[in-house]
Amino acid sequence: MKKSLPSQEILLLSVRGRDVPGITSKLTSLIAQDKKAKILDIEQTVVHKKLLLSILLGFPGTNSDKSPLLKDLLFAANELGVDLNFEVFDPSLMGEENRHHQYVITCLGEDVGAYPLSQIAKALAHRGVNIDKITKLALRSISAVELIAHTRKVLEPKILTRELLALSNQIGVDIAIQKHDLLRRAKRLVVMDMDSTLIQNEVIDALAEQAKVFKKVSEITHQAMNGKLAFSQSLKKRVRLLKGLQLKDLDYIYRHLKLTSGAPKLLKVLKQLGYKIALVSGGFTYFTEKLKKDLGFDYAFANQLEIKNGEVTGNVLGPIVDAKRKALILETIAQGEKISLDQTIAIGDGANDILMLTKAGLGIAFQAKPYVRERANYSISKHTTLDSILYLLGISEREVESLSR
User: Fold this and answer.
1) Strands 276-284 and 189-192
2) 341, 359 Cβ separation under 8 angstroms
3) Nearest alpha-carbon partner for 19 in 82, 72, 61, 62
4) Domain 189-403 falls in which CATH fold?
5) Mind listing the pLDDT tens digit for each residue in 265-290?
6) Partner of 281 at 20 to 30 A CA spacing, among 53, 64, 149, 397?
C-alpha cells in the first residue's frame, strides 16, 4: 500500500529589489524563528545589483496560522527597501524537475541579442524544450549566452545541434546543445589540430613557398581535397617537392608562425584547471615539438620529416598521421591517462579531423569549412578566438579573469 505524504500548505515568496548586504540574512532569520515554517527550496540571483530571491515555504497541515510570519516578512521587506510577494504553490509540482531531462544550450555570436534569442527559443519550444535559466557568459558584451533548459522526453544533443545548423547560419550565432550533467564540466583531455586551428598558418604551404614549389604543392592539395588522392599519398608527393630545404628554412618558418587569437589564454586556463593537452597534426614534428615545448603541451604527434646533414630529404619517416591515426591517437592518450572518451575534447578545422571530432565527447569544428561543420557535432565559426571554446565548458569570462588574479 502506497504511504500518503503528510499534508502541507506551500507558499512561494518572491523578493525583488536593489541588492544590499543583509536581505537574505534578515528574511531567513525571521523564518527560522517560526517553528512551523520550513524552507523547502530557495534560489537567489543578482542581475546588475538587482536581487531576485525565491523561497518555497512549507507549513504543516492546511490551517496553519501564517499571518504573524507573513506580516513580519512584509515589514522587514519594507525596511530593507525590497518588494515581497507571496502566492500559494501547488504541492503536486514539488519534485517535478526531477522527472525532466536537462540540457545546456551555448550560443556564441557577435551579438546574441533579441532576434537571435527569439529564434533559438522558438526552435527549442517547437521541440518541446522549456528554458529555465539564461546567463550571459561574456563579461562586456552579449556575445556568449548560456541557456539551461529541460524537456520531458530524452533528446540527443548532438543530433539536435546539427538540426539547428541552418538556423545557426541564418541568425549568425553558433548553437551547441549538451546534456546538463557532471560530465560536461568533467572533461580532462583536450586534443587539437595545429594548422588553421592552434596556428593561423598552413605549414606545408609556408614550406612550399620557401622551396619555391607552392603552385605544384597546391595542385596536389587540390587533388586530395577532391578525393583523387588519399591524404597519405598526397602528403608524400608534397614532401618530395620539399627536398633540399635547409633547417634554417624550417626555423625561419617556425619563428613566423602566428598563433590563433585566444590560443595562449585557452592553454593557460586548461593547464590551471588540470587538463591534459595534446597537439595532433597532419603536419610535421619539427614544428609540433617546438610548440609543445614553448606552449606547454603534454603530448605532440605529427609526421616526421627525414632530415640529413641539416637538409630535408623529401621523405617522411614512420606512419602517416591521417584521419584514422588522429582518432586512434585521441583514444590511445585517453586510455593511457585513464580518461573516458566522454571526458575528451577534440578541436580541428579540416576533413582530416572529422573522425577525431566525432570520437571525442566534445568535438568542435573551429573556423571550419561547411563540409566539416556539417559532419562535426559542434562548431564555432562566429567567434574567431580559440578561448571561446571555454564557453562550451560553461566557463564564464568572469571565472577566467578570476584565475588570472
Assistant:
1) parallel
2) yes
3) 82
4) Rossmann fold (3.40.50)
5) 999 999 999 999 999 999 999 999 99
6) 397
State the angle between helix axes of 23-33 and 67-80 in degrees (0 to 180), rounded to the nearest 10. Answer: 160
Handedness of CA 101, 376, 185, 138 (dihedral sign): negative
- Phi first, then psi, for residue 227 (nearest 5°) are 80, 10
* Angle subtended at Cα 359 by Cα 237 and Cα 201, rounded to the nearest 5 degrees: 45
Indicate which residue of 72, 90, 111, 193 is catalytic.
193
pLDDT value at 4 more than 50: no
Q: How far apart are the first and last CA of the chain?
A: 59
The structural architecture, per CATH, of the domain 8-93 is: 2-Layer Sandwich (3.30)
Q: 37 in helix, strand or coil?
A: coil
Give phi and psi for 60, each to the nearest 5.
-65, 145
Element spanning 270, H or E? helix 263-272
Annotate 306-342 with DSSP letters as a single string: EEETTEEEEEEESS---HHHHHHHHHHHHHHTT--GG
Beta bridge partners of 101: 151
Which cell numbers in the block locate residue 168?
545557426
- Rounded CA-CA distance 23/7 in Å is 30
Condensed to tens digits (0 to 9), the pLDDT of residues 184-203 reads 888 999 999 999 999 999 99
Asked if the model's pLDDT at residue 2 lies above 50, the reply is no
Place of cell 596536389: 220
- Among candidate residues 34, 195, 322, 353, the one labeled active-site is 195
Q: Tell me which CATH homologous superfamily contains domain 97-180.
A: ACT domain (3.30.70.260)
CA-closest candidate to residue 280, choices 336, 343, 347: 347
The reply to whether 174 belongs to the active site is: no
Q: When comparing pLDDT for 224 and 111, which is higher? A: 111
The confidence band for 98, taking pLDDT boundaries of 50, 70 and 90, is low
Q: Where in the chain is the domain with CATH 3.30.70.260?
A: 8-93, 97-180
Instruction: Work out the average pLDDT over 93-103.
Output: 74
Matching residue, cell 525590497: 82
Catalytic residue status for 83: no
Q: At which residue does the C-alpha cell 519594507 appear?
A: 78
Segments of the chain assigned to CATH 3.40.50.1000: 189-403
Q: What b/e string do you get for 305-321 counting C-beta neighbours within 10 Å, with b at 16 or more?
A: bebeeeebbbebeeebb
CA distance 56 to 96: 14
